[in-house]
Every structure is written in C-alpha cells, then in structure tokens.
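Q: Sequence in, structure out?
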Amino acid sequence: MIFEFNKQSVFLMVFLIHLAVYSILSFKRYADKRNPSDFLLALLLLLGCLYACPWMLGFAGWYDNQPYRDILFYVPFQQLFFIGPIGLLYVLYLLNPGFKIKPTFFYHFLPGIFYLSYSIVCFVADKFIYHSYVMMDDIQDPDFDNWYQYLGLISIAGYFFTAYRYYINYRKMVLNFLSNADALSFTWIRNFFVAVLAFIISWLSINFYSVITGGSYTASWWYFLIFSLLFYYIAITGYSNNTASRLYIKNWTLHRTPDIVVLTEGAQKMLNSYTPVQAIEEEWEEEKQTATEPATINNNAAEAELLEKVALLINEQQLYADPGLSLTDLSVATKIGLHVLSRLINTQSGQNFNDYINNFRVNAIIEKMKAGDHHKTTLIGLAYDCGFNSKTTFQRSFKKHTGTTPSAYIKTHNL
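A: Exactly. Output:
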C-alpha cells in the first residue's frame, strides 16, 4: 500500500518533525545538565507532536487500511490528561530552581494512567480474547471521543490557569526581592500562556463551527495548523531560554507566604548537590530569628526615620550600582531583618523593592546629567554605570520616575 500525503498533511508534518527534533534536543540537554525543566519541556513537545499525528496519518490513508487502522485505534496518541500536569511542573521548575515534587503530586497523573490502561485493556481484549472489535466500535478513533476531548480540554485549561497564577505570584515576588526584576521576569512564559490560551480558543472555535455547519474531517486542518504553529513557538522559545531564576522558594503554594532565599550569581550551577541551598537555608533561619520584629517599629515616624537611614546608606555606599542587588543584600548591609525591611519599603515608600532601587539609579543618572557626564558617554552607558542592565528598563524607569524620557529631560533642563 502506497500512502498519499496531501499538501495539508505534508505542511503539518514539517512542523511535527521540527517539534520532534526540539524534543530530542531538550532530552539531550537534560542528559547533559540534569535540569528538570529541560526534561519536562521535552515531554511537553513530544505530547504536542503525538497530539497531531492521528490527523496527519489519517490523511495518509491509515484509517482506511490495516494494520494501520488498528494502530491509530489502539495506540492513544493524544495524551490530553498528561499535558496539564507536565505543563504545570515545567513552569514550577523553571521559576523555582529549588522546587521539589512531592509524592502526592503523582495523583495528578492518575487520569492519564487510567486512560493508558484502558487502551491496553481494549487492545488485549479485542486482539487476544475476542479476536474482533468488541471494546472498540470500529467506527471512530477513541482519541476523538467527545467525552475524552472535552474532559481533556478542561484538564489542560485548569492546570495552565493554575500555572499562570503561580507565574503572577512569582512576578510579585521578583519585584519585592530583586532590583533587576525585568531580567528575571520570564516574559516569554507569559507568551507561553498566551499560546496555550490561543490553543484553547481555537479548539472551541473549530468545534463550535463544526456543530453549526456539520463540519468535516478536513475542516479541522486549520485547528491543527494553529496548534502546530503554537507548539512550534513554544519549542523555539522554550529551548532558547537562558534565564535562570534566582529565587529559591520554599513551601511555595498559592495559599500561603513562602520562605524565599535569593541565590547568588553562579549558585544555579551548584543546585544539583543542594549543599549551597542548605547552607543558605540555615543562614535564612538564623536571620529570621535575629531579625528586628515589626513590633519594635511602632509608629510611622520611627519607620520613616529608619527608611531615611536605609536610603542614606544606599547612596553613601552606592549599593544601587550593583545590577544584581537583592533585598537580602540590602538586609545584610543595613542589618535590618528581611521581613521588616520589606515592610518598610512597601509601606513607607509605597513601592516594591525593584522600583525603590530603580529610583536611586534614576536619581544618580540625573546627577551625572547635571554634571555633564552625558556629553562624555552615552545615556545607556550612564545607565549601566548606575545599575541598570537593559536600555528598556532604564527608559521605562526613568519615565516612571520623572514623567518624561531621558532625552526630553535633558532638553527641558538645558543640560
């Protein structure tokens, strides 16, 4: 039997081959670096590749010829119940290098395991017991049963909504603990969630259209094309991501405030042994026990005075010039407990830590402008000298602080 691929299935096959390649590359990188997020990305891309296989192979004539028809019927290519949990774990491991999966999480994989087991039972019963289609109806591929498709979509939507909530939670923590939040905000993950949302919307739209018009097997081409493009984007951006989180988040849930340790530069490479993290945790516990209690700061005047001393120290020692300055670093420098310092900055300045430090950087740049330093070097050069690590962050922070752009500020003040 010679199978005939039409141009639609060939076009789709190109994307699926690329997904398979990126999955293999991610597996290889995991083998080299033992980073769990690489392994989970590889699994996610593999599931995406398998998801579109029945449609592509169906157009090649597999549903019309044996034994290929049985392969599509009995092999569960579309593992919808695994996509959600694996996607959630991928986000958690990416955002938190200290994340450890708990045994109870494996319960989330039970629906997928049950579906796999059901497929095996159907195959064994039909092929070795009944020797005919009994468990299968020989009409429709079980992967496309309405109950499975709808429950699978609900599962994917639920898990990725949970993952998105963790991402938003992470963004808030980054802003309150790191002065270079933009560099560690994982903006591409936000786009990853947009891609998943687009997948869900396209699935609902195509199915609604099929219900209204009667639809056809070929009409789903557009849906699988959109799906392939979205997963191809996830493959490229996920594999090319070089950002490593500096937040080691202990006991991270959506319903309680976690303990957070800011990893120093380079600590990411040593996380496999967990030795440096354990040491950091011990220091963190000791710091919390010796920290100034909030009760000792009993009025706004005292809080304001203490924050003024913090600001004076930041300016005197030019702590803002360190692009990787963290709340932990400032806590050590000021000898103020981490929780107290965070509360001081948030309540008295009305800002998160990231914006608070960026204001010092903007003020330092303004002073250099007044001294005429911008005539000796570029504005971005001044920005880097004062602790900014990107042109975009510098311009956004400057405008947020002064209400105008750096170049406009220079013209307005005749500098």
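Residues 298 and 304 are 11 Å apart (CA to CA).
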